[in-house]
Predict the structure.
Amino acid sequence: MTSLQTATPPQPSPPTPAASARGLLRTYGQGDTLVTALRGVDLDLPSGRFTAIMGPSGSGKSTLMHCLAGLDQPTEGSISVAGQSLEGMSDDALTRFRRDHVGFVFQAFNLLPMLTAEQNIWLPTELAGRPRPALQDRFDHVVETLGLTGRLTHRPSELSGGQQQRVAIARALLTGPAIVFADEPTGNLDSTSSAEVLSLLRGSVRELGQTVVMVTHELDAAAYADDVVVLADGLVTHHLAAPSRDALVAALAERAA
Ligand SMILES: Nc1ncnc2c1ncn2[C@@H]1O[C@H](COP(=O)(O)OP(=O)(O)OP(=O)(O)O)[C@@H](O)[C@H]1O
Ligand SMILES: [Mg+2]
């Protein structure tokens, strides 16, 4: 597989974070059934970096990611992504915002079974009404880099798990979104496919200047990231730059204050 290369060198990261959250509170239910998933999260996610979000099961990782991605709305607090505040946006506006600025990679791939790999990759662009010709070169490059050239006419059921996840990554990268969110993207993959997918995400950051935020349980997966955000009980307890494995294990062992 070739590495992700681009004709122009990566640009220096702008100072504005790709995404920020202030005072993020997210509760579910009420009264006896009230669950507080996020208890006041402040976070800045820098542009052009690969950030892993880690923490115990139930610590609020998916909730945080869904709020940042505009898939869920916080009970309180503010979010801005790509310099745009999500506060007060209608459902329609949020849908448009996601379509134009955000890419997703899920554990379950979320490909449409009746469409070929190629049709799946183009689908969000088509829904957004963006003309294909402007993106054809990027499509060819992303598809080649992800090793999908010979698989474009296959339907998801005719692809391995690793190949399906590569199709999902190609779909997320095609439009050059401000930020790609990945929730346990290697959760359903064997170790070889996992390493491949993580290298591709890593390469998209290094060589395309993509911003990637990935929720993961795996220390091995977090090792591909530049930064690691650790959550515990709905709060950010650490935001570490290139932590060693030992530092990460120690941070994960701590409880929220
Ligand atoms: N729709 C919901 N209704 C009620 N409670 C919810 C809902 N979604 C999440 N929660 C609760 O919010 C808390 C945080 O959940 P979240 O899914 O964000 O955790 P997580 O860190 O992603 O966990 P995992 O590692 O298991 O995926 C949990 O206690 C969970 O039970
Ligand atoms: Mg989760």
